[in-house]
Amino acid sequence: MKRSGRTLKQRLQDISYLPSYLSRARHFRGHGVHSPYVYDIVRKVFMQRKLQPEGQALHDALLALDVAKRRAVEIANLALHCNYPHWCIDTMGEGELIIATLNTRYPRLKEYADYALEHRATLCILNPYNNRDRWQVCHDIIEAHPSTTIDNRAYLLVFNNHLPKQRFRL
Known about the structure:
Largest sheet: 6 strands, mixed
Number of helices: 7
Strand order of the largest sheet: 1-2-3-5-4-6
Shape: globular
Helix content: 40-55%
Distance between the termini: 35 Å
């Protein structure tokens, strides 16, 4: 009998994620993050549950694309925290923040990363772990990227600014 709505196989599959959870535990709530810029993002963006009123337009646009409410709040707050007045979703348009949802297929993610690097924009890739191919493309983007990347499991942030090459897995 399934008490939790999941089969035994599904519950045991969570054990395979244990090494990832343990390796990321040191970054819980920003502890172990030695970059003041990233620490500030962790404390003021990832840990905030309330939407800042100025971010309502981006929040609504993300909710219309079936992005989880918590993630939509975080991304809208990130845009405000980093002073990104212009953003675009699933396009390579003019904006300081380019958001690639699941509607952007994984073969095009590399093009988005190159475009963001060329235009000094921040790239946000939602659901980088959706499937193996998508994660492989995201991993290649992280390895080749010259600046800071933040992977918090729900989305991958690729910054193209003054920051040195650093990789954070939260």
